């Protein structure tokens, strides 16, 4: 476990301890009841009727909202199918990775301060925005469906982790499926559409205004105790070229434009080779030296025995290609496989590699230019970070809530679709409802198993080998 990971766990533990202590003090002084706060398991729930009048004003445009909700059903169903497909693909993929590379359980929880890839303050702001627009959309469609809203509220656990619009449960159960499905679908769809808008602002305004200070491949990580670490390489460096040092003579110098070129070069090396790396870091261009180790010592794979190993992680694309992907991941793709790789880079590789929120040395690699580049550089990067995390967390909230599992919004769509399906098979009344309920529970358990499998799958596969 690295110090970075340990510090995240320590921060999370400290925040949770402070939260528990504050709730206990407020409860002891009777302040929870005074401010309409209730303890709900580990959560703190705040209920109010404020904001209902604003939702009522917005809901007057019924024709627009009904059309929007009908489109939202298709968006949410598409997200549901996509997510199930991704979970099934991941369930197979995790069987191929070693246990040491399995994700920590904290990565499954999309909470700032708990999930180490989500920055605390950007994360809190973006999550709060995602929650407000998600539940606001639910509330508007509830009112259009003539459902009474008992209260609005926020769910807290250290930070705001949810918001809710509480319609009358009996009315919700008794309403027409179309009304219920519109209300359920509009929340995830609104998050997804808002995420797309934020992505366009991030890409077409901010990323279109940066230029790389050097052409090369960004180093995103270093293996502890590896030749790279011993040679002084650091995350955030830009690898420009490689060369061999043979008895003090530099030979076979090769420009590196992407990860494939780096991999091909390393395939020709052997343990004990002295590798020279020309890098750009914080405005300076320097040579670094590393004596290669045996790759077998790090992978335990027989086919790696006798191959040179340095111990660095790189972005798959060059600095210019990465910028182009961030500007338009679709237009830069040459085929479906390339498009998938670009989208993974845009939505997954950046946060997991620690490049966003953008900070030094990344902000030294790219320089703001053009009209928006006239902003002060710190403000430029702060706004770029804000829009990226608004995109990222709204997308995560949207696609997660589309899952056909209790208590997500997708469960309502699945329930009503299953009710119609079993109705066509001749089931009616209580018997149909029992079959639908059991099917929904089975699917919900399956979805949560697929999520947890991302963590335990590599360990199970290792035991069975």
Describe this structure in words.
The protein contains 16 helices and 14 strands. With 465 residues, the protein is of the alpha+beta class. The protein folds into three domains: 35 residues; 241 residues, no CATH class; 166 residues, Roll (Pdz3 Domain), CATH 2.30.42. The strands form four sheets. Strands 6, 7, 8, 9, 10 and 13 form a six-stranded antiparallel beta sheet that branches. Strands 1-2-3-4 form a four-stranded antiparallel beta sheet. A hairpin with a 2-residue loop joins strand 1 and strand 2. The N terminus is likely disordered.
Name the descriptors.
465 residues, alpha+beta, Pdz3 Domain, six-stranded antiparallel β-sheet, 16 helices, elongated
Please write out the topology.
Blueprint: H1 3-28, H2 31-34, E1 37-40, E2 43-48, H3 52-58, H4 62-93, H5 120-144, E3 149-157, E4 159-167, H6 169-174, H7 177-206, E5 210-212, E6 217-222, H8 227-230, E7 238-246, E8 249-255, H9 259-267, E9 274-281, E10 284-291, E11 293-294, H10 296-299, E12 308-309, E13 312-318, H11 319-327, H12 336-352, H13 362-365, E14 366-368, H14 377-401, H15 410-424, H16 429-464
Radius of gyration: 26 Å
Terminal CA distance reads 24 Å
Which spans of ≥5 residues are poorly predicted at pLDDT below 50? 1-5
What is the tally of helical segments?
16
């Amino acid at each position: 476990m690295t110090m970075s990971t340990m510090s995240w766990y320590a921060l999370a533990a400290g925040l949770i301890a402070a939260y528990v202590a504050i709730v206990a003090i407020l409860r002891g002084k009777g302040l929870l009841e005074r401010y309409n706060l209730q303890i709900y398991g580990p959560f703190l729930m705040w209920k109010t009727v404020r904001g209902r009048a604003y939702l009522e004003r917005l809901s007057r445009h019924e024709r627009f909202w009904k059309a929007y909700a009908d489109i939202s059903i298709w968006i949410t169903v598409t997200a549901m199918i996509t997510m199930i497909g991704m979970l099934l693909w991941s369930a197979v993929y995790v069987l191929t990775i070693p246990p040491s590379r399995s994700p920590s359980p904290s990565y499954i929880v999309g909470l700032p301060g708990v999930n180490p890839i989500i920055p605390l303050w950007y994360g809190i702001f973006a999550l709060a925005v995602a929650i407000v627009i998600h539940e606001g959309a639910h509330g508007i469609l509830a009112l259009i469906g003539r459902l009474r809203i008992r209260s609005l509220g926020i769910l807290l656990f250290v930070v705001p982790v949810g918001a809710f619009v509480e319609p009358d449960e009996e009315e919700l159960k008794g309403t027409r499926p179309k009304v219920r499905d519109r209300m359920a679908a509009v929340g995830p769809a609104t998050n997804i559409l808002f995420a797309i808008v934020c992505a366009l602002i991030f890409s077409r305004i901010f990323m279109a205004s940066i230029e790389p200070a050097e052409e090369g491949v960004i180093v995103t990580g270093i293996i502890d105790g590896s030749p790279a670490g011993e040679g002084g390489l650091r995350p955030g460096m830009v690898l420009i070229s490689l060369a061999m040092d043979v008895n003090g003579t530099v030979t076979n110098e090769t420009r590196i434009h992407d990860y494939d070129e780096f991999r091909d070069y390393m395939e020709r090396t052997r343990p004990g080779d002295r590798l020279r790396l020309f890098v750009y870091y914080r405005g300076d261009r320097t040579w670094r030296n590393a004596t290669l180790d045996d790759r077998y010592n790090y992978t335990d794979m027989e086919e790696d025995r006798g191959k040179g190993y340095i111990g660095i992680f790189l972005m798959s694309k060059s600095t210019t290609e990465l910028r182009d992907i961030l500007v338009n991941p679709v237009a830069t793709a040459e085929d479906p496989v390339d498009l998938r790789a670009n989208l993974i880079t845009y939505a997954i590789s950046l946060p997991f590699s620690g490049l966003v929120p953008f900070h030094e040395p990344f902000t030294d690699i790219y320089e703001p230019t053009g009209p928006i580049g006239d902003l002060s550089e710190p403000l430029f990067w702060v706004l770029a970070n804000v829009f990226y995390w608004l995109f990222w967390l709204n997308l995560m909230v949207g696609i997660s809530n589309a899952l056909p599992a209790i208590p997500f919004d997708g469960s309502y769509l699945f329930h009503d679709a299953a009710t119609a399906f079993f109705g066509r098979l001749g089931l009616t009344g209580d018997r149909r409802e029992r079959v639908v309920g059991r099917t929904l529970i089975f699917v919900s358990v399956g979805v949560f198993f697929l999520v947890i499998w991302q963590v335990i799958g590599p360990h199970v596969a290792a035991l069975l080998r």
